[in-house]
Design brief:
mainly alpha; single chain; 52% helix; Dihydrolipoamide Transferase
């Protein structure tokens, strides 16, 4: 197979990989083959850790909220339960930020949670506003026209009596029976096959045709070796 040069595409591809490998240790930053392996591995870890990062941050927020709430006399699970009962929905990211940067504000939130725990019936949570789909009014169907009974035409003559109809049928002369076609004359006997047709036939067919005509093989003079009857002899005998 002939060699194909990729031209600038090859150079651009290598530049792109080495740019991603910038800052790697050793040959991984300037040797393309080794850099490509390192970059592929790093991209797999980056894809996985973008999802793990969200889990780890949630754990960190819970640890900070738990530490601050215990300083104010509540555990983490009771704090969250009290806030839900009081109808105060604040996510964990905001609570953790308040716990770190505003201790007094977090203490006020803990007091609200304590009041919520003392409530017998929890306050209803505010439902998110959802836009109702606009339903187009259905088109009214046109009223169906009632089928009126057709009026009988009085102009038509009344039906004739059965007796008059029977009398007319008797008066009509009976139709003559169709004449039978005369039988066709017997077809003429088939014409004898020509010499060319006989030559196209096989020896077995020639023998059968000779039997039909009453020609025996002993009556034919053979022109073959030692007086044997060949196909040409059968053809000449039948063509006579």
């Amino acid at each position: 197979m002939a060699r194909v040069k990729r031209g600038p595409h090859r150079k651009d591809k290598r530049k792109r990989v080495l740019k991603l490998a910038k800052g790697y240790y050793g040959k991984k930053k300037n040797a393309y083959r080794i850099a490509k392996q390192a970059v592929d591995r790093a991209l797999k870890f980056a894809y996985r850790d973008r999802r793990q990062k969200k889990r780890e941050l949630r754990r960190l927020w819970i640890v900070r909220i738990n530490a601050a709430s215990r300083q104010n006399g509540l555990s983490y699970n009771r704090l969250i339960n009290g806030l839900h009962r009081a109808g105060l929905d604040v996510n964990r990211k905001v609570l953790a930020d308040i716990a770190v940067h505003d201790a007094e504000g977090f203490a006020a939130i803990v007091e609200i949670a304590k009041e919520g725990l003392e409530m017998e019936t929890p306050a209803p949570r505010p439902e998110p506003e959802t836009k109702k789909p606009q339903v187009k009014p259905a088109k009214k169907a046109a009223p169906k026209k009632s089928a009126e009974p057709k009026k009988e035409d009085k102009t038509k003559a009344p039906a004739k009596s059965e007796k008059e109809a029977a009398a007319k049928t008797e008066a009509k002369p009976a139709k003559a029976a169709p004449k039978k076609a005369a039988p066709k004359k017997a077809e003429k006997a088939e014409a004898k096959p020509s010499k060319s047709e006989l030559e196209a036939m096989t020896v077995a067919d020639l023998k059968a045709l000779a039997d039909e005509r009453g020609i025996a093989e002993s009556d034919i003079e053979g022109s073959g070796a030692s007086g044997n009857v060949v196909k040409a002899d059968w053809v000449s005998a039948l063509s006579k």
